[in-house]
Amino acid sequence: MALHALLAIPPARSERAFTPLISSQEKPVRPELTKIDSALDEALVRLGAVVMRLADPAVTRTAAEHRALAGSVRQFALCAERSADPRVHALRNELERRIKPVLIWSQS
Fold this sequence. Notes:
By secondary structure, the protein is mostly helical. The chain contains five helices and no strands.
């Protein structure tokens, strides 16, 4: 067997997903990926709504709860980064705004 054949790396599953599953198939898999992407965006919107409820001061009271909330917001922001849905980005921005500490200036 030739050396170049031994060194050949087959495409990853994610790369193969963009090619048709069957050579006689007319439509590529791309529309299926669009459906999955849309479903993921919907799941992110629902997840963001749950985290938003947790960001309510009446729900998150202790320091430990605030730390957990900040971790949840960071994880949501990482997932939302790749989304093209403006609702997901709006939720991310609002959640990040809510966990920032409030600075109170005194005029003494």
